[in-house]
Design goal:
Layout lengths: L1 H28 L9 E10 L19 E10 L2 E5 L24 H7 L9 E3 L18 E5 H7 L21 E4 L3 E3 L6 E5 L8 E7 L3 E5 L7 H6 L9 H18 L2 E3 L4 H4 L11
Parallel strand pairs: 3-4, 4-5, 5-6, 10-11
Antiparallel strand pairs: 1-2, 2-3, 7-8, 8-9, 9-10
Length: 286
Amino acid sequence: MQKKRISVALNFALIACGALWLSGSRAAAQSPQLPKDLRLYIFDCGTIHARSVAGFSLKNEEVASTEMSVPCYLIAHPKGTMLWDAGLFPDEAIGKPTKSGAIQEGTPLLGQLAAIGYKPSDITYLGLSHFHSDHVGNANRFAGSTWLVRKIERDFMFYDKTLPRTDPTYYSALKDSKTIIINKDDYDVFGDGTAVIKFTPGHTLGHQALFLKLKKTGPVVLSGDLYHHPEERTLNRLPVNEFDKEQTVASRAAMETFLKKTGAQFWIQHDIVHYGKLKKSPDFYE
């Protein structure tokens, strides 16, 4: 009788443990709870170890650093999430040599997302400032998200020729993604004015910047590659290889007007000095 009671107790304990394990597994599989207000997470997606800034019509002695940061961003909103830019290299390439022999370095993006509870399947939207390789490294991993892109940019990305300054294999899976074609200058991602994609052509045909209206931090604009170094802005210099320099000049002028109107901070994504001062995930701005 005593043995029977012990056996029954053990069975109950095993069932209870199994229920707890199953509950924990389901919790781990669940998407993270969306915040009550807009949040911005910043991820380290690599560093460009440039030795010269001549390509930006600048001299080395004119800039604080020749190197450039490569951040990725997660925008978490009560109605969904958006990844803005996808990194310098695909996660699986990090640690492997390039064709030139240099080691591809950086911190895997998916691990940084996982550290705050997100999987690629939790990302509602993918927004890319443009198609250059240092902004699309992990784009294929988010082919299940809805891609927000301008038709002129998408058409060029999948045009049947060798594209400059990118690796089309980084984003090839997006060709079959659910896609929203942006056909106006400003696109309100969540419909409440807190995350607005702005048309800033010139660097590429469909280049975009992102305006965020954060409750505590205040308004912020993420530049894409409208500028690469802050000295381009202060010294009024243009990169040598812009797709359309006149469009870049017009986009920059329109952005300056917008910044004055909104009082928004302007975060140049490749500005490694400013980037070093910002909070990185798991911390966030709100």
